[in-house]
Write a structure and sequence with these properties.
By secondary structure, the protein is α+β, with helices and mostly antiparallel strands. Helix content is 50%, strand content 33%. The chain has helices at 14-30, 70-105; strands at 2-7, 34-44, 47-56, 60-67. Strands 1-2-3-4 form a 4-stranded mixed beta sheet, covered by helices on one side. It is elongated, with a radius of gyration of 17 Å. The N and C termini lie far apart (40 Å).
Length: 106
């Protein structure tokens, strides 16, 4: 899995980058099908945005979150990303289970 971090309008400090890598370890444990994650950090006046573009084998997931604190935005985005990855995993599991049952009946 490759991770790229882009900060728009400012240079992201090393502390922030290590925080993102640490949080993405949780996501990596959920799915082994992660190919690439792009993290885009930006701000508008008082709002700070965290955007995660995740490329799985079968689907791309884009998550955007904003708050007053960039660390809070990252946490919200990671939670949302985990939820969506689990949803995709469950759908693929259900789909494969149906195929097995259909094959057994015929």
């Amino acid at each position: 899995m490759t991770i790229s971090i882009t900060a728009r309008g400012y240079k992201a400090p090393d502390r922030l980058k290590s925080y993102i890598y640490q949080k993405l370890k949780r996501v990596e444990r959920i799915s082994d099908r992660l190919l690439k994650i792009e993290v885009i950090l930006s701000y508008e006046k008082l709002d700070q945005w965290a955007e995660f573009k995740t490329h799985l084998n079968q689907k791309d997931i884009i998550v955007k979150e904003k708050s007053e604190d960039i660390f809070k935005s990252i946490d919200l985005a990671i939670d949302n990303l985990e939820r969506q990855i689990n949803k995709v995993k469950d759908k693929t599991k259900e789909h494969s289970k149906r195929k097995i049952v259909e094959r057994l009946e015929t």
